[in-house]
Amino acid sequence: MATYLSAIVDAHRAAAAADRRDLGALGDLARAAPAPLPFAARLRGGDGRGSGVIAEIKRRSPSRGDLAPDLVAADLAQAYRRGGARCLSVLTDRDHFGGSPEDLRQAKAAGGLPVLRKDFTVAAADVLDARIMGADAVLLIVAALAHDELVELHRLAVDLGLDALVEVHDEAELERALGIGAVLVGVNQRDLVSFDVDHARAARLAPRIPEHVVAIAESGVRDASDARSLARAGYDAVLVGETLVRSADPSRSVAALGDHPVGRRTPAGVGAG
Apex CA 218: angle with CA 90 and CA 45, to 5°? Predict the structure, then answer.
């Protein structure tokens, strides 16, 4: 059965297969690019702060259509920073999300925050491109990658100095992520088939994420109440897109979502909030 994810990943795999660029030359460009900023470390901080916010720049989505097609990436990045966002996430997929590498470059320059390249990473060139365009982290979706691909792309990201946000949707995928040594894990609460949000998913998986791993809750974070509950369940940060790009006051919205006390990820904390 075709899903939103499978259709998008198939398109990216076809583009990767048609890419004739020399990986050696691309690797040289990537390693010559400015050193990445620390992404995962900024989320946890270690200075007694509460939960963090990864604020997303997102023009549209396959399931919801246009969200903010005319947004100015630089302006939104500055608004997010004023609100206290610790990191940014920028969609660079053009065909399905209306994003671009230029959005990422503008957001990084204007916001001055570590940036996740939010895209569908399926090949080494995708990781190299992320470093070249100025990203500080890449997204690896477990459901979209075979085991050897996940291992290879994670290793390449680490070798380039990039953080890798390894995204999971269930217990089996979480075990795969932890098995490759992921130290930054995102739990996406959006169903891969229907694109509906399951608000109980992140709380259910939280106790399975070791304390040394930086844990991110993704999708379906609507307000401060959601963010507070996820922090109590043990999430170090939330990644929020639609709520923020549709907000009349993005700075204020970011401020409401962050700095909640983060609980320990223990079975007793499941469903707290």
Answer: 80
